[in-house]
Amino acid sequence: MKISIIGTGTIANEVIRMLKTEVKGIEITSLFAHSNKEKAQAIAKSNRIERIYTDYSQLLKDDDADFLYIALINSVHYDFARKALEAKRNVIIEKPFTMTLQETETLASLAREHQLYLFEAIAPLHTPNFRLVKESLKRIEPIRIVQCNFSQFSSKYERYLQGDIAPAFSPEMGGGTLNDLNVYNINIMVGLFGRPVSKQYFANRGHNGIDTSGVMVLSYPSMTAICTAAKDSSSPSFIIIQGEKGWIRIPTTANEFRSIEIMKQGKLTSYQRNAYENRLAHEFVDFKNIWERKDYKQMEEWLETSIEVMKVMT
Questions:
Q1: Where is the Gfo/Idh/MocA-like oxidoreductase N-terminal domain (predicted)?
Q2: pLDDT tens across 273-282, in order?
Q3: Which DSSP letter does residue 126 get?
Q4: Distance of CA 37 to the CA centre of its chain
């Protein structure tokens, strides 16, 4: 599978390293620089990427990639993905999918119209550990309470307090804790339990209105999920699923999903099923396998999860 990397930021660099070192069968054809050509040249040189584009229209016209991986600031995900789909290109979008439900539904409609593959890069949902948790829920049912906490004090927070606003703290660029961290918790809840009956978001807001931390409460017919995330403070990160017959704990950040503990009938068992060191590897292997198998039905199921998550996020 051939892929073009759209962006030169932290996550784009991590994906490039992962594709070069851990995942086989995916070739990087080119790199697109949205604003910093010199940075793109350095990345391309160190990773032996032959082509650099600064004109997106030219890339869509000339590059022969099977997929475009869009790893730009959140606020431009929609525009870049829409142009790619209109050019009949398969697309992988870094989380969060878009900024609004309408944007997500428009992209989904375009993909379906042209029978294109459209994936959201939300890593934990593609791990064997996540699948094991989903399979294990029946062992502790009925589920009553779920607690999620993904809190990391941001290295950019002190600068933000002084008025130096990075994209992660910019409302105009789609920043904020909900879009950056809590999106993982919400994806995991929707991936495990489906659409909530109702939701409420309680945000702590900074001087420009951005949510620097917050709590999302998701209500289901017989359970409640509390999704907490913070960039203005820190805490041990975890997910605990409490059932009447036991509990399941993921004692890592939601984006890592590295290990699982299951308590059942007084016995605690630990699992680690993930096969790759890099947290992003499983999702790209999944995308490649689904595309090669032409399993459009599976793509549709994942796309529906992205739509449901965006209903909650919006």
A1: 2-118
A2: 999 999 999 9
A3: G
A4: 26
Band of residue 156 on the pLDDT scale cut at 50, 70, 90: very high
- Please, what is the Cα angle at 279 between 177 and 23, to 5 degrees? 140
**3-class DSSP state of 120:** strand
Can you tell me the distance from the alpha carbon of 260 to that of 27, in angstroms, rounded to the nearest whole number?
A: 32
Structure confidence at residue 140 as a pLDDT band (50, 70, 90): very high
The encoded tokens of residue 307 equal: 């739509």
Q: Which two tokens stand for residue 70?
A: 């869009």
Q: Report the predicted TM-score, pTM, of the whole model to 2 decimal places.
A: 0.96
- Give yes or no for a contact between 118 and 111, defined as CB atoms under 8 angstroms apart: yes
- Residues 39-64, mean pLDDT to the nearest whole number: 94
What integer best gives the mean pLDDT of the chain? 96
Q: Could you give the CA distance from residue 108 to residue 148 in angstroms, rounded to a whole number?
A: 29
CA separation, residue 151 to residues 45, 127, 181, 257, 313 (Å)? 35, 21, 8, 14, 18
Distance of alpha carbon 71 from alpha carbon 93, whole angstroms: 7
